[in-house]
Design a protein that fits this description.
Length: about 350
């Protein structure tokens, strides 16, 4: 018997609908696999200008979200492996993210034959989250650089609070298991991609494919140049509005001692300038801990948001001072004796 003919209009409609549906489903699956499997660091990771060594870390056209908490806490992708391989790991909040210039760090690494990894987190002021990641995944660099800031929450505290926008909430990634973290990270990327597609379909003339903040898999650096305020040439100079007569205390010293003992290795404290920073407490804390402190003087830093974070010019100023002081420090020379430091 031959194939039955579709003489009924309804049957023809069903056949066409089935073919179209199968084509859409197949194309969607192929599209999804391309998102997930074409050299990405993690499922559907969104590259920067086509470079998969960078992933979109902070984004969302409908609701701002951040990706790296799941990636680091649950060891998704290669970020933890890269941090483990580093000689120097930097810890701190978003002040650090904005203050370290990627190009200057890479030049410093090349000059000294070392690897530096930036493990600072946007929206997380306390260091407890970093401590848990360090212990959970056994990150053991030769030298820690720790930003000892005390605004609202001291880095050396037990806080596990995330502040993105006006509301502070418990850090989500620390409340669930690794499989859930993988699912959330993948869903976040897919959601961002779908939002991008819809934005392009809705207004192709004004569509911008690269938005938000991107993070490097290789060294943790953050790409901020998509923010016009970060690269603006007319930003104001950082105001310093806090009474400089501010001090550390016994509780912070005790927490810091336990923290350093727990993560092991050598450490240097630093303090990125912002309008409410307190150099005195950082120096006192370093002295109590018996470690060196790199606290830059007022060098006329420029700020993108009126005093909270450095802009690009400010980050270059800070990074140049910091790296010069770092290579002269005893901790750097002792921890990395094989680096090409001028003796």
């Amino acid at each position: 018997m031959g194939r039955p003919r579709l003489t009924s209009p309804f049957l023809r409609y069903l056949a066409v609908t089935a073919i179209v549906s199968a084509t859409i489903v197949g194309a969607t699956l192929a599209w999804g696999l391309t998102w997930g499997l074409s050299g990405r660091d993690h499922f559907a990771a969104m590259p920067l200008h086509g470079d998969p060594s960078w992933y979109r870390d902070y984004g969302g056209r409908a609701k701002p979200e951040i990706q790296d908490m799941d990636l680091f806490y649950h060891n998704i992708g290669e970020s933890i492996a890269k941090a483990r391989a580093a000689d120097v790991v930097v810890l701190g909040p978003s002040f650090v993210v904005y203050a370290l210039d990627h190009g200057l760090l890479k030049a410093f690494e090349t000059r000294h034959g070392i690897k530096i990894y930036d493990m600072a987190f946007i929206g997380i002021r306390g260091g407890e989250f970093s401590r848990r990641i360090i212990k959970r995944w056994n990150i053991r660099p030769k030298l820690w650089i720790i930003n000892a800031d005390d605004q609202f929450i001291h880095f050396f505290s037990s806080s596990l609070v995330l502040t993105l926008g006006p509301k502070a909430t418990p850090i989500p990634a620390a409340t669930y298991g690794r499989l859930t973290g993988m699912r959330y990270a993948a869903a976040r990327n897919v959601r961002w991609r779908l939002e991008d597609e819809w934005a392009w379909l809705s207004a192709p003339a004004s569509y911008s494919p690269d938005l938000g903040i991107y993070r490097s898999v290789d060294d943790g650096s953050v790409y901020l140049d998509l923010n016009p305020s970060y690269v603006a040439a007319d930003n104001r100079t950082m105001p310093f509005e806090r009474d400089p007569n501010c001090h550390t205390n016994a509780e912070t010293i005790k927490t810091a001692q336990e923290y350093l003992a727990d993560i092991g290795g050598r450490a240097i404290l630093t303090l990125v300038p912002h309008s409410q920073y307190c150099p005195q407490q950082a120096r006192e804390l370093a002295q109590a801990l018996g470690v060196e402190a790199i606290v830059p003087p007022n060098l006329g830093y420029t700020t993108l948001d009126g005093g909270g974070h450095l802009d690009h010019r400010g980050s270059v100023t800070f990074t140049e001072y910091f790296l010069t002081a770092l290579e002269q420090s005893e901790a750097f020379r002792s921890a990395l004796p094989s680096s090409r430091v001028e003796r």
